[in-house]
Amino acid sequence: MADTSIVTSTPFYFQGAWFLCPPVSPRGLEQVESFEVRDDDVFVSAFKKSGTTWTQQIVSLVTSGSNFNEVSKIPVYKRVPYMERMDLSGGPDAPPIISLLKDRPSPRLMKTHLPYKMLPRQAREGKGKIVYCTRNPKDVVVSVHNMSLMHDLHHPSPWEETLDNFISQPPQNSWWNVIPEYWSHRDDGNLLFIKYEDMKKDLRGHVVKIAEFLGRNLTAEQIDEVTANCTFTAMKENPATNMSRDPLMQEKLFKRGKEKGIEFVRKGKVGDWRNWFSPQQLEKFEAFHKEKMAGIDLTFEDEE
């Protein structure tokens, strides 16, 4: 029987960016550049804690064709596998997820947190589809902090430390480099750039937008059914999307979260950062953000 125990994560660098193993597989990263992309491949991409699972849920239901309620019961990490991750179910010697994707039937759906420049070369050249979701960095860092408190692979850090680390990330990992790079490709024919805050305002409209981008013709009733399965309440109650309620994932990754009462699907709020930033921290963060985003016409809502 395979050893399914999870060891402490070890940081490592690849092409100037740092990752944690597990969950990211060094062997998997080495295969990304030359990964053979199919025309109907879909990459769900986002900076961590920016609406990735939400986008995975929408994309997987939109492309499923029917039986949305039944599809929604399948763990989202099985429907939309994490491309650069190691196979946590197979022990330390298991093949990386990306190598298992090669034989997966079309259409292949894949999740990634990689910067644009590290995506498969053929995807950058226009093959396949990329749905990119971004989020206000103030809410991102709050979500990153709570993830560190509840995820067994992460080192739990005080809020002040999380905030300082977020601002001082290496360039390849920096929110202020990764997001503007994707934003610069927003008019590419194979990339759809969406914002978490806009999805909160108009979820149904974004289901329609994503379906149209992926060439899926859904009826009004189907759009309504997908939307119902993608609300925050539905996803929080669903163990297939809220991994804290998946018994296997809770045991493998979220024991600390259970002890602290923090779930993988936590609040889903726009503007929760107000409950975390001190006036001094906010002033420093916003000054840093303004400097880094000078000349970039990408803005975010601060309230729902």
Automatic annotation (TrEMBL):
The keyword Manganese does not apply. Keywords: Transferase. One of its GO terms (molecular function) is sulfotransferase activity. Its EC number is 2.8.2.-. It is an enzyme of class 2 (transferase). It comes from the Eukaryota. Residues 39-296 form the Sulfotransferase domain. Pfam families: Sulfotransfer_1 (PF00685). InterPro entries: P-loop_NTPase, Sulfotransferase_dom. The keyword rRNA-binding does not apply. Belongs to the sulfotransferase 1 family. This is Sulfotransferase. It comes from Branchiostoma lanceolatum.
